[in-house]
Amino acid sequence: MKRKVLVIDDEEELVESVRKVLKKRGYHVESAFDGRKGLEKLAETDPDVVLVDLRMPVMDGMDVLRSIGKTDPKPPVIVMTAYATVQTAVTAVKEGAFDYISKPFSNDQLELVIRRALDHSGLVEENQLLKAQARAQKAFAGIIGVSSPIKRLLEELQKVAGSEANVFIYGETGTGKEVVARALHQASSRREHPFVPLDCAALPENLLETELFGHEKGAFTGAVQSKMGLMEHASGGTLFLDEVAELALGLQSKLLRAVQEKTIRRVGSTSERKVDVRIFSASNKDLENAVAKGAFREDLFYRLQVIALKLPPLRERTGDIPLLAMHFFDELKSRAAHPIDNISSAAMMVFESYSWPGNVRELRNTIERALALTDSRQIAVLDLPASMLAQVEQGNGGETPLGEFQKEKQEVIIHFERDYLERTLKESQGNVAEAARRSGMERPVFHRLMRKHGIEASAYRRT
User: Fold this and answer.
1) One domain, residues 352 and 228
2) Are 157 and 281 within one domain?
3) Which pLDDT does position 176 carry in this prediction?
4) Residue 228 located in a structural domain
5) How many CA atoms within 13 Å lie on the side-chain side of 382?
6) Looking at the structure, do residues 354 and 213 belong to the same domain, yes or no?
7) Helix axes 249-261, 205-213, angle to 10 degrees
8) Model pTM?
9) Residue 98, domain member (yes or no)
């Protein structure tokens, strides 16, 4: 692709000469004969480099330079002047010029300065890309996992981060919809502005309207002063509407207008207020089904779901459970009443066998509960909820008979238990109390497992 050069100079002969030279050397050249028309051409053509004369009627080169400095992206600007002095050079660079070239200049001098400007621009773009990638990696560091569904999600988030489009996040309860929304905000260009969450299921319709749009003093009984709504507060940043499917139809209409017009009207006001907000929405319900039933406006649905993200449930994230369990353990262990070193292998096996209907949130709560209840230096099986242990023991919560998979899994568990007991007894030289302590089990439980597998402690004692 040919690189584009915009030449702005009131000397038509010079412009034509530069055009011919650069065309022969493979550049596409646009031109303008005064500063104002040059800025119009800039907006129309998006050049890679701008050559601008310092002294021109209507609008001089310095004014053009300052105007280009306010654009995004900013192409490198080379100032041309027949009045080159140290002072003009310093002033031009201070105003944002990449370089300057003195008239008259040779064809080689012209191409050299353009090549340098293009090389510099490429380095700047590469640096900006690397910074954006680093920001995204940092922002998404809290999304933990190595499973295929999580890898796909992270790839999607990387693509979406640079967009301004509204995003809809689907996922079961506890899958981390707000965590993903916050991470996406932090990776976006709006990260320096507020991230404002609102639980649409937490408030009745009348209170939700004032929470979202704000109200004026005297708008209703108790409105003793004006209040800014969350949509206004989020202006410049991101508004996160959790459980958006719970919005009443009347409020959906008002939200639709706000999203379309980028304006809001406070309750009790007749004036419109501009808002600049990106909206992330979330639900654990099938919103398309709600649209089909007339419970959710179709036009609002398409406004909110420009991009759709689906969060995988924890039961589908093979390999992620140990990582998440240890992450929450490390995060929460300082709150325990006494030092706790780790999660036992047996407890981790239970975690990996459980179906996690409450997803990541349930896993975190389970770790927090176990840390509060355990009397040993590790989280053991007996520190886990009885309902969880019962479901794991029964396969799928007793809902289906054990199939071949469940039978094979039971055999694996039996082998694991036996190998674990034998190894622990060997390490403790047949001392049952020490072996129980190491495994994080109560001594009677350890004895019961020994009896189950026909293991005698005496076989491991040194004579």
Assistant:
1) no
2) yes
3) 94
4) yes
5) 13
6) no
7) 10
8) 0.62
9) yes
d(CA 108, CA 93): 22
DSSP 8-state class, residue 459: G
Is 254 a domain residue? Answer: yes
- Beta strand 307-310 with 167-170 is parallel
- H/E run at residue 283: strand 278-283
CATH code of the domain in which 301 resides = 3.40.50.300
CA distance 352 to 363: 11
The CA distances from residue 307 to 1, 99, 200, 279, in Å, are 31, 42, 20, 11
Q: What is the pLDDT of residues 56-112, one digit of tens each?
A: 877 888 888 888 888 777 888 888 887 656 677 677 777 888 888 888 888 888 888
The residue assigned the tokens 């646009």 is: 30
Lowest-pLDDT range, 154-163, 191-200, 294-303, 351-360?
A: 154-163
To which H or E segment does residue 143 belong? Answer: none
What's the rounded Cα separation, in Å, for the pair 316 and 147?
9
**DSSP secondary structure letter of residue 227:** E
pLDDT at 323 over 60: yes
Q: Residue 15 belongs to what domain range?
A: 4-129
Distances (CA, A) of 224 to 215, 227, 247: 10, 9, 26
